[in-house]
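[STRUCTURE TOKENS]
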Amino acid sequence: MNAPYAPTINAGGRLMELGRPMVMGILNATPDSFYAGSRRQTEAEIEARADQIVAEGGDIIDVGAYSTRPGAAPVSEEEETRRLRMALAAVRRRQPEAVVSVDTFRPDVARMAAEEYGAAIINDVSGGNPQGAFGGTQAEAEAWPEGYVPPIFAMAARLGLPYVLMSSAPTLGSVMLDLSAKTALLHSIGVKDVIADPGFGFGKTVEQNFAIMASLERLGELGLPVLVGVSRKSMVTRTLGCTADEALPGTIALNAIALTKGAAILRVHDVKEAAQCVKLAVEMATTIGI
């Protein structure tokens, strides 16, 4: 589990050590996220979820207000902002010291979350696409004109925050090319900390998801910490013939595999179980000296 990348990221002035894998707990301020158990809409529900993430060992609270599940209705920037303001205020009331990431592709939403509520990481599942294309060729870097800088990239540089860069490309090779090109652009405009997300479930078949997981350690060649988000997704449910509500055991299995292949951050609905995976992986690595 020796990290092939810089072992820290600067999250809003706080240095976070990534030599030990971290757990990012999902907090969805949405009515329509794919896993019903993750939806939190009232202030009381959001406060309770923030407390739960921290109590169960979460290192980061990832707050989102725009569902990216297939077929979800678009959400206006005004509605996303309204939901996030309510959610982030509730999180800060209960967990003022927590490291918060904001799950958005919109630069002004990211700015609001950072400047008003201290969000310390931008988690953009669009890979920099200003229309929020969550999968497919619209999100690919090669479609951008020469010299183009996505607005969310520019905002990450302006705010000086780590940026989670996700790829919707379908194969490991194309994911690595996509992440490499976009990381070079991010670094060139001053974004120092980039976290690579291979985009499980975005623009990929189930078989392609498993092919990327099987060779996940190859992403270490990019020299970036890797975030893995497979929690209760279709690569679990379709393979096992179960619902998202029944997908915890499969999620645990894939998270454990990801840790053995160098994942630095697990993005999950089930924080306690993921934290246990991390603890066991760290103990094994310490015992055998890797």
Q: What stands out?
A: The first strand starts at residue 8 and ends at 11. Residues 66 and 75 are 6 Å apart (CA to CA). Residues 77-94 form the longest helix (18 residues). The chain has a mean pLDDT of 90.
